């Protein structure tokens, strides 16, 4: 009947293609995949995704995810929109300049994609706590900063729960899909915290920041960048044009203008040309030219991986993809391996039994004498209410002198508690390890000593 | 591979029921690494460290008192600032003592390759300590930061030595005044 065609609910036609993936089996499906209409229902109604960053990648990601059916997306970004964003961050318009990126992106997508209920968070990722991150099924990020990635990575490792036999409680794993671009190059990767290589495992893969030898920029500048670096590193702290407490701000046009002017003077002296305002800005802010098509390709890859993770309709990439479009188009996917002694993801937490009335000296002695540890010079620190505290560090004279008294104090008076963790550094372990204190109840009263 | 989909279902059921939270905040990777670096710091006898706040391992001072070379008898203080991106980025090191030295300028900037272009995450605070100590034993006029001092070291070693002495005793070298920094 010809009339039925128009009566097929819009809803059904809209997800027609996604249904083909979710309601049929195939040779590339995940071994545990069971085709079912429930999966789409899960993606749309329950699956919560966090997009970190609402910039070049974030705009693409939010749009991709919304169009794939994910309704419960959250997006976090602390930045506001600038004119120079508009060429590629397509959810923003000229009238949005100065507004929150996260909010504008969410408003746009919620209006444009029916049913989408995205939520914006206009703040730094560090302002959100464990409870916030724990609510998500998958986190996908498009960041331009290594510090932010490392922080997020640390947060997800923090959320992992381990069973008493030190095996990982898999329900505490929140997968992280990470994308990054730099000009015509990009990468996308899937991280299963505690199970596959994490940001910290592969920290050496990030290119080092471009720096120039100080003596070159001071005495034998050859490039316009040398002149700008000189003004930034040497002339600014010397002349303090805005007072000694004002650090150089690459976002402040007046600051950039000052640096530009001084750099030009210096360039002239050394017969260097082509110091431009744009280059000055680039050197000061470490700007990497962004290419819209690279962002689109990497975001699409990340969104696809999110879809695979959420639905199991296909096995995920394993686990690191590089894309290079600088000279033709090249991609390669390899298995980034875990570092067995990674400071972030190797669960080195060990358990130490202590009596509730113990003093710090008891722990110190135990670390040195217990056959499970046999440490030489353990330095003991901890974190109390988010603040680092040095409990005892024998190898550094000035700290030893000031923490020596702690040895005689009861551990409970030092802020330690049953289940609390201490951090111990010693030459016998490749990294600082964390040790969980387990208070033992002394039932038989043996007070004769 | 983990069974994520089944986990999601589980999680969905769990939603609303707040999980036992309030677990202890973990130290950052930078913090863990610097703790390790410092605990294993193996200082030569001419060096010592000072921590204004023993709970803050990210900001400290290194004091070098060379026992040979041009700078014998001097006492030089360096400030170390370890950032959140350590060890991907090197600590920021400044010389707080005014010194007449080819590789240290009057603002305290230090030209040591491993503090900038040749830094690698495998290097440690100890590597920097040795690098700084070496600067006092073998000032390098090839890569000058204080060009005047470097030229002098190359052309008139005797005069350079006299000027280093004068600066350490406290006094003027050229137009610059140096505070006394003898031990």
Automatic annotation (TrEMBL), chain A:
GO terms for biological process: protein neddylation. Catalytic subunit of the dimeric E1 enzyme, which activates NEDD8. Belongs to the ubiquitin-activating E1 family. UBA3 subfamily. GO terms for molecular function: ATP binding; NEDD8 activating enzyme activity. This is NEDD8-activating enzyme E1 catalytic subunit. GO terms for cellular component: cytoplasm; nucleus. InterPro entries: E2-binding (IPR014929), ThiF/MoeB/HesA (IPR045886), ThiF_NAD_FAD-bd (IPR000594), Ub_act_enz_dom_a_sf (IPR023318), Uba3_N (IPR030468), Ubiquitin-activating_enz (IPR035985), UBQ-activ_enz_E1_Cys_AS (IPR033127). Gene3D superfamilies: NAD(P)-binding Rossmann-like Domain, Ubiquitin activating enzymes (Uba3). Chain: B, domain 2, Ubiquitin-like 2 activating enzyme e1b. Chain: B, domain 3. The keyword rRNA-binding does not apply. The active site is at residue 215. Keywords: ATP-binding, Ligase, Nucleotide-binding, Ubl conjugation pathway. Residues 352-440 form the E2 binding domain. It catalyses: ATP + [NEDD8 protein] + [E1 NEDD8-activating enzyme]-L-cysteine = AMP + diphosphate + [E1 NEDD8-activating enzyme]-S-[NEDD8 protein]-yl-L-cysteine. Pathway: Protein modification; protein neddylation. CDD domains: Uba3_RUB. Its EC number is 6.2.1.64.
UniProtKB/TrEMBL annotation, chain B:
It catalyses: [E1 NEDD8-activating enzyme]-S-[NEDD8 protein]-yl-L-cysteine + [E2 NEDD8-conjugating enzyme]-L-cysteine = [E1 NEDD8-activating enzyme]-L-cysteine + [E2 NEDD8-conjugating enzyme]-S-[NEDD8-protein]-yl-L-cysteine. Residues 1-28 are annotated as: Disordered. InterPro entries: Ub_conjugating_enzyme (IPR050113), UBC (IPR000608), UBQ-conjugating_AS (IPR023313), UBQ-conjugating_enzyme/RWD (IPR016135). The active site is at residue 111. Residues 29-173 form the UBC core domain. It holds the Pfam family UQ_con. Its EC number is 2.3.2.34. Keywords: ATP-binding, Nucleotide-binding, Transferase, Ubl conjugation pathway. Belongs to the ubiquitin-conjugating enzyme family. This is E2 NEDD8-conjugating enzyme. The lineage of its organism: Eukaryota, Metazoa, Ecdysozoa, Arthropoda, Hexapoda.
């Amino acid at each position: 009947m010809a009339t039925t065609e128009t009566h097929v609910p819009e809803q059904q036609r809209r997800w027609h293609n996604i249904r083909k993936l979710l309601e049929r089996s195939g040779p590339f499906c995940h071994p545990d995949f069971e085709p079912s209409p429930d999966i789409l229902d899960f993606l749309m109604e329950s699956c919560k995704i966090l997009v970190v960053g609402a910039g070049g990648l974030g705009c693409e990601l939010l749009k991709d995810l919304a169009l794939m059916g994910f309704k419960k997306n959250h997006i976090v970004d602390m930045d506001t929109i600038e004119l120079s964003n508009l060429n590629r961050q397509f959810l923003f318009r000229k009238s949005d300049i100065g507004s929150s990126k996260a909010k504008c992106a969410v408003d746009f997508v919620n209006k444009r994609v029916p049913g989408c209920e995205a939520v914006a968070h206009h703040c730094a990722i560090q302002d959100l706590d464990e409870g916030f991150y724990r609510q998500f099924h998958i986190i996908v990020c498009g960041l331009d900063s290594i510090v932010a990635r490392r922080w997020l990575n640390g947060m997800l490792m923090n959320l992992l729960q381990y069973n008493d036999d030190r095996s990982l409680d898999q329900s505490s794993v929140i997968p992280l899909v990470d994308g990054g671009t730099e000009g015509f190059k990009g990468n996308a990767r899937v991280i299963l915290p505690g199970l596959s290589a994490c940001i910290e495992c592969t920290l050496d893969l990030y290119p080092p920041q471009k720096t120039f030898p100080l003596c070159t920029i001071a005495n034998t500048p050859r490039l316009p960048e040398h002149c700008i670096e000189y003004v930034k590193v040497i002339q600014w702290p010397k002349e303090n044009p805005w007072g000694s407490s004002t650090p150089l701000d690459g976002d402040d046009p007046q600051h950039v203008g000052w640096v530009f002017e001084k750099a030009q003077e210096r360039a002239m002296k050394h017969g260097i040309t082509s110091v431009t305002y744009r280059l000055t800005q680039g050197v000061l802010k470490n700007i990497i030219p962004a290419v819209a098509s690279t962002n689109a390709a990497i975001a699409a890859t990340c969104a696809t991986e999110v879809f695979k993770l959420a639905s199991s309709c296909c096995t995920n990439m394993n686990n690191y993809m590089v894309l290079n479009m600088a000279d033709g188009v090249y991609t390669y996917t390899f298995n980034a391996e875990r570092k067995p002694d990674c400071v972030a993801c190797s669960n080195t937490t060990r358990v130490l039994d202590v009596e509730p009335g113990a003093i710090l000296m008891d722990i110190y002695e135990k670390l040195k004498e217990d056959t499970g540890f046999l440490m030489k010079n353990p330095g003991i620190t901890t974190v109390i209410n988010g603040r680092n505290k040095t409990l005892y560090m024998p190898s550094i004279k000035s700290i030893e002198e000031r923490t020596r008294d702690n040895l005689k104090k009861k551990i409970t008076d030092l802020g330690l508690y049953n289940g609390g963790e201490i951090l111990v550094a010693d030459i016998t372990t490749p990294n600082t390890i964390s040790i969980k204190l387990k208070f033992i109840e002394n039932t038989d009263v043996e007070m004769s000593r | 591979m983990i069974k994520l989909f089944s986990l999601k279902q589980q999680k969905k059921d769990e939603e609303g029921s707040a999980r036992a939270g309030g677990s202890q905040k973990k130290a950052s990777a930078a913090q863990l690494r610097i703790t390790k670096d410092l605990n294993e710091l193996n200082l030569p006898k001419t060096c010592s460290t000072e921590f204004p706040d023993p709970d803050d391992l990210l900001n400290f001072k290194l004091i070098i008192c060379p026992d040979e070379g041009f700078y014998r008898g001097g006492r030089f203080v360096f400030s170390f600032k370890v950032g959140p991106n350590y060890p991907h980025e090197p600590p920021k090191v400044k010389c707080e003592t005014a010194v007449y030295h080819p590789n240290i300028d009057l603002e305290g900037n230090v030209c040591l390759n491993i503090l900038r272009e040749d830094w690698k995450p495998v290097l440690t605070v100890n590597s920097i300590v040795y690098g700084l100590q070496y600067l006092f034993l073998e000032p390098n006029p090839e890569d000058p930061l204080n060009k005047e001092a470097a030229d002098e070291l190359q052309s008139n070693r005797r005069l350079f030595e006299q000027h280093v002495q004068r600066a350490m005793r406290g006094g003027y070298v050229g137009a610059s005044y140096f505070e006394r920094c003898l031990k």
